[in-house]
Amino acid sequence: MAKPAMARETVVALRRQIARIEGSLPERLAQAGGDDGLVLRHGPAARREPGFGTGFLPTGAASFDAALGAGLPPAALVEIHGRQTRDAGAVAGFALCLAALVRRSAPARPDNALCWIGTAEIFREAGFPYAPGLSRFCGLPAGALFLCAPNETGDALWIAEQAARQRAFAAIVLELRGNPARLDLTATRRLHRRAQEAGRSVFLIREAGTAEPTAAPVRIAVSPAPAARRSTVSGPVAASIGHPAFAVTVTKSRAAPAGRLVLEWNPDASSFCEIRPEDSGALVAASGHRPDSSAARGAVVALRPAVAAPAAPGQPSREQRPAHRRARRAR
User: Which of 59, 142, 176, 277 has the largest CB neighbor count within 10 A?
Assistant: First the structure.
């Protein structure tokens, strides 16, 4: 009897260690009757507060939900990447749209605020959230937004963990720049664990950072996209700009392969929808999609010989300069 009991304890310890590595804590142990031993259940079934469902949160775009593996996880660490700092507005706007979806899914909460944490460096480079825009496009009043701007990355991580435990916040947004050493695998495991324990979402924004191993089950790369034309009853309006659009790539998902989409955020319905790039109403083409103008004009280019500029007063002419300062001749 002692050997089977020791074997069961070993299996439980191994499964517990696997759960920690996968970031799927907290765990739930249930003692089964008889000699079958101890049964360990682990996964996303964490403790939920009233107002938060146990299923995935639909975003409104079926293709995006499928790429995420059924929708946005309601209690997990979600990693959002921006390739360059100049894309910080689009990346932060996309995170705010996701936070608006989370806040809408919990209307029964007495306090439905959003905690935005970022280092002083990122706020200095990318700017602060604009309160009128938050109210218009995300339905977030200015009084429901709490900003924290510590100087150190370690302080920002600590504030994010403590904020995730507070019942007043429906979601937590942590915005960092680059690849700080303090944001390692252990730090992301702690954030994911706090999100699961509290039953709320924690969005980790990485501005101008490269992908690294993290405990986040979902990683999304976001960049700005041309908005579609404004739609009316009589059809799209020419040379108009519609709702905000984002180029989204799901680079990490445990249930579905990676996929790239162009999503449009509807602030009136508080949901996403997929649009086609050719339906865009962009007035100026993106520089990355322009043809090579030099190749179109031909390979032969006429050059006019350069005219020597007159020497400045008190300076020797080109002929009077030492030979070692002239351009070297090819042998």
Answer: 176
